[in-house]
Recover the amino acids of this structure.
């Protein structure tokens, strides 16, 4: 069964610090991996989407990396801001025609930025 | 910037009542989806819709659920006889391309509380 595991489950850091969130997946064959930011009570917003051939992708202070061999991805946040407080969700799409039902969502990492 | 809009933002209903959640996808998008997220849990796929018909549905999407695109802009989710366990955030999403490769844009969600 395809799975996406994210760690840590929650994280508290001080404003201005950097942090890295992890995503391990078992989805195979693999098409792409996405990171979403979900503010409390709001819908997920796309940060990055990477195909299997991409190693890294940046979106402002967010940098996602992907190692398709070890089936791991990370999301690095630089110089954190209070507005970065949110859940960060890793979503993996298989390359097997599974459609929307094949998209595998992680449980997310709940990040809290303290002033 | 175009966005997916959902109404209502919050609905409280009695068990057994019918509920209709409404969504206006981004205008040039072709694929539409409903997801739900029970409090504290991960996002779950319900149904996808393309070319005026359901293209996929999950095990959650049983006979109590239905979707409709009554006109060129609205996309609705109906729950015929709500149960306590239907309490969740319901997210509508849309994409230009199919779910395997297309970026999904989510609405802000409709919070359903069943009493």
């Amino acid at each position: 069964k395809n799975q996406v595991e994210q760690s840590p489950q929650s994280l508290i850091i001080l404003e201005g610090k950097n942090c890295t969130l992890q995503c391990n997946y078992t989805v195979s064959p693999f098409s792409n991996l996405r990171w979403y930011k979900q503010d409390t009570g709001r819908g997920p917003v796309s940060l990055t989407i990477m195909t299997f051939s991409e190693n890294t992708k940046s979106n402002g202070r967010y940098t996602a990396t992907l190692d398709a061999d070890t089936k791991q991805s990370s999301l690095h946040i630089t110089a954190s801001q209070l507005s970065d407080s949110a859940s960060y969700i890793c979503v993996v799409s298989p390359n097997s025609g599974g459609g929307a039902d094949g998209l595998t969502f992680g449980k997310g990492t709940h990040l809290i930025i303290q002033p | 910037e175009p966005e997916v809009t959902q109404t209502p933002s919050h609905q409280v209903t009695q068990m057994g009542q019918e509920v209709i959640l409404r969504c206006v996808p981004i205008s040039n998008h072709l694929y539409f989806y409903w997801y739900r997220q029970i409090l504290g849990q991960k996002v779950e796929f319900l149904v996808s819709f393309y070319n005026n018909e359901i293209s996929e549905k999950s095990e959650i999407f049983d006979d109590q659920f239905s979707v409709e695109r009554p006109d060129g802009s609205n996309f609705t989710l109906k729950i015929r006889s709500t149960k306590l366990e239907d309490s969740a955030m319901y997210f509508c999403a849309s994409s230009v391309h199919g779910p395997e490769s297309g970026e999904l844009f989510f609405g802000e969600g409709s919070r359903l509380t069943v009493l």
Summary: Chain A touches chain B at residues 31-32, 34, 36, 41-46, 49, 89, 93-95, 97-103, 105-108 (CB under 8 Å). Chain A is about 5% helix and 55% strand. The mean pLDDT of chain A is 92. The helical segments of chain A are 99-102.
